[in-house]
Each structure stands twice: as structure tokens, then as C-alpha cells.
Amino acid sequence: xxxxxxxxxxxxxxxxxxxxxxxxxxxxxxxxxxxxxxxxxxxxxxxxxxxxxxxxxxxxxxxxxxxxxxxxxxxxxxxxxxxxxxxxxxxxxxxxxxxxxxxxxxxxxxxxxxxxxxxxxxxxxxxxxxxxxxxxxxxxxxxxxxxxxxxxxxxxxxxxxxxxxxxxxxxxxxxxxxxxxxxxxxxxxxxxxxxxxxxxxxxxxxxxxxxxxxxxxxxxxxxxxxxxxxxxxxxxxxxxxxxxxxxxxxxxxxxxxxxxxxxxxxxxxxxxxxxxxxxxxxxxxxxxxxxxxxxxxxxxxxxxxxxxxxxxxxxxxxxxxxxxxxxxxxxxxxxxxxxxxxxxxxxxxxxxxxxxxx
Length: 358
What we know:
Layout (H helix, E strand, L loop, with lengths): L2 H8 L17 E7 L2 E9 L4 H15 L6 E9 L20 E8 L7 H18 L6 E5 L7 H5 L7 E2 L2 E2 L2 E3 L2 E5 L14 H13 L6 E7 L6 H9 L4 E6 L3 H16 L4 E6 L4 E2 L5 E2 L6 H9 L3 E4 L4 H9 L3 H4 L4 H18 L7
Parallel strand pairs: 2-3, 4-10, 4-11, 5-9, 5-10, 11-12, 12-15
Antiparallel strand pairs: 1-2, 6-7, 8-9, 13-14
């Protein structure tokens, strides 16, 4: 039996609190079977003394279920987590860069709910509020939608970022510093990557980008609860997450699962944003194409608040296609005012004590 064969068996062992296994997390340093003795070496980062013991028991149980294994030797190297709190007790956890005051994930359970459009407009609204407060240039937007990066288009950015030493310099527009995979690959080049490559890219976006001093870094995640989401909570301790959904059950049911994922990894939910809530026809009649009440119901089931309802209007889509978010082109419009209101609420929640954000 080869080392790869043993690792295939070890994929049955999940890291505590995660649905992901210790092999895909990169925690297995070596594995070998010699004369009936299985030797496995793990390296983890945690401040929780229960986790190494739990992993040792689970690895041993897994190995002893293999007929060829007669004895087991399990070595676990434990490095203490540098900071407690979100990410502090998780595999490979890292400390937040000191120059980034707050980090917030923008997430959704399913695609097609306008999450990136929401993230772009929220970032621009935050930049406007901070500039008015005498703190310009202190908002960042990290586009972690590796497979379908749309932030560059919506922000009106193109080209390649500059390199300063070993670090990338984020591009900037509308007062927001932006980094995206869209800057690094050609439009006609699909990104076909496995989980470890996604993890490495997210780590580099956090650690090898010259963000400068930021008050808030928004992280636009791809839909779902997979590698990108788990890699992020390992790499960047988050102050919280915002869930974006449309009102219908097909979206809210999946969004709720995304919220439960963040709660499971100890990331506070800062609120739910309902997108495409309604539109008003030329006669002034209000229509709720996707139903109503889904956002508030999702927020209540997750024990958080509804941050706001964004209307379905063509100007939002047109602004995204033109690289001119509606918060910038029409800040006093109903949609622009909604985004600024959500941005103000977010800043208030981030300034509150951590315990009050949950």
C-alpha cells in the first residue's frame, strides 16, 4: 500500500467543525505503511487542545479499519494559533494583516442573485462615506470569485496590476482598491483549478498584495460553501459576513445554508441583503417578481438582521456593464441611497464590540 493509498483512506477524517477532510486541508505531511505499521504525520495550527487529541483518535480509527494495518504511529505537530477568535482555531489559520482594520465576506448560497453587483456598489458606498469622514482611499475589494471574476468589468478596470518587489499593487477606481483574478488571466482563458490552487491564490491576495491602510476590506466570494469559502476563513480572520439573496425560496433556502456554514466556523453574520426585491413599472405600479419577505425570513431564521432591500432596476445592471456603479453615477437615486444606508449600517456594526455583532 502506497502513501497515496493511505491518504485516500485518510480523506474520511474531517477536521472538527468542517465538512472538509484533513488531506485536502494539507494537514497530512507524510503517510507510510511498513511491515504492517502505518505511520502518519500531521501538522496543524490551533489553540484548542482538544483538536489534536480528536484528530489522533479519528486517524487511528481510520487506519485500523484497513486490513493491512496492524499497528499505528501517529505524530501531530501543533503550532499555536497567533490570534483567537474567527479563524484562530482552524487549520492553517493566519492572523489578520495589521493594516486591515475590518474584513467582511460578501457571500451567497447560489449564483445569479447579484452578489458581485452588490459587493461593488457597497464598496463604492463605503468609500464615499469614509471620504466624507476624511478617510479617503481606505476601502478595499478582493474579488475571490476565481472562476467568474466580474468585479473588474463592474469597476471599469482593465490591464495588469503593477508589481512592487514581491507584492502586487491593487488597482484603484471610485475610491476603492481592487484585486481580482480577472486582472491576472486573459478574458478567453478559463480558470481550471483544484482546491489547493484556489487556497494558494486567496492566501496570496491577502498576504502578497500592498493594500495599504484599510478601514474595511470586502471579499466577494463565489457562490456555495466550498474551497474558496473555507480557504478564506483559514487565511483571513473575518469580522463578519453579509449574505446576499433574492426573495424567492429557491435562493433563500440556499442562502440560509451559506449562513449556517459561516456560523459553524465562528464567523458572525452581519446581516442579510435582499437584492432584486421589486421593480416599478412606467405606470408607477410596484411588482415583486421574485416574491416578497424572503430576505427578512432568512435573517430571522439565522438570528441576524435585514440590512436593506435593493430594487430591480435597469440602471444597476447598466452601471455594472459600463464600469460605473449606480452608487457613483446616481448616488441620490433610490438604489444609490439604499446602498449608502447599508454601508452606514455596516460601519456601525463593525464599530460595535465584537460580541454585539453576532
